[in-house]
Amino acid sequence: MEQRYATSPEHVPGMDTAELRRRYLVEHLFTDDAVGAVYSHHDRVVLAGVVPATTTVTLPTFPEIASATFFERREAGIVNVGGPGTITVDGEQHKLEHGACLYVGRGAGEVVFASLDATGAAGAARFYLFSAPAHTAHPTTLVPAGGGTVRELGDQVTSNRRTLNQYVHENGVRSCQVVMGVTTLHPGSMWNTMPAHTHDRRTEAYLYFDLPADARVVHLLGEPTETRHVLVADGQAVISPSWSVHSGVGTAAYSFVWAMAGENQAFDDMDGFAVADMR
């Protein structure tokens, strides 16, 4: 488990490209038959990737979180961004198609990941996990791909027409503090989340997927009046502290998993910034 320590807005102006990527971009979550994980000290969230390419993979207990099991004091939302697979939680198996989400509550024990096509990376499931500390328990719940609360946002004229599926949120699958969903851009749209905004009370992470191998998303971060950018490939994530905008434009259409944790679960608790005011 890699550790990422918290940063403040004052750090950003002095960062070069390499440091921006080292602090905020998570490049190597997905490795065949393994678990890759990053612990961020922004709201103590954990991002993890699991690829059961040729065998099942059991979620380990990382020494960095100092608990008997991963979910002893945590909860998580897990989205499958690969081929069909299963997640077995304490003996109960859940099938996840591409884009489906499983919420796992505090107190869960053994968690085992498997692909329905376990013959190699091509057809393997790729599970993306976003976890935060939890002080209460909610039941493990599966949401099928395209389920949850569906919101249509944006406009084709501004190239940001998109379908947003809210999976784990205050009016959907209940959690202690994790909020999670999937957004898919419509054909011909490339921008996500514009006008941009911050969540001064929550940390958010974007995991980009369904992006062609030769395409990239130009992801904006930093304070609205001191923005920077990183180029993001398929299967990579960006950690967005509470003071940072999070928006991007792709060279091709894509989807992304958005996930938050922090002070509250209100989806619309955000501070927007007009495009003309950004720098």
TrEMBL record:
Record field: catalytic activity: 5-dehydro-4-deoxy-D-glucuronate = 3-deoxy-D-glycero-2,5-hexodiulosonate
Domain of life the protein comes from: Bacteria
Pathway the protein acts in: Glycan metabolism; pectin degradation; 2-dehydro-3-deoxy-D-gluconate from pectin: step 4/5
Chain sites annotated for binding Zn(2+): H197, H199, E204, H246
Job description of the protein: Catalyzes the isomerization of 5-dehydro-4-deoxy-D-glucuronate to 3-deoxy-D-glycero-2,5-hexodiulosonate.
GO MF annotations in UniProt: isomerase activity
Keyword line: Isomerase, Metal-binding, Zinc
Family matches, as HAMAP family: KduI
Name used for this protein in its record: 4-deoxy-L-threo-5-hexosulose-uronate ketol-isomerase
EC number, as in UniProt: 5.3.1.17
Keyword Isomerase applies: yes
Details of cofactor binding: Binds 1 zinc ion per subunit.
Keyword Zinc (UniProt): yes
First and last residue of the signal peptide: none
Cofactor(s) demanded: Zn(2+)
Lineage per the UniProt record: Bacteria, Bacillati, Actinomycetota, Actinomycetes, Kineosporiales
Stated family: Belongs to the KduI family.
Gene field: kduI
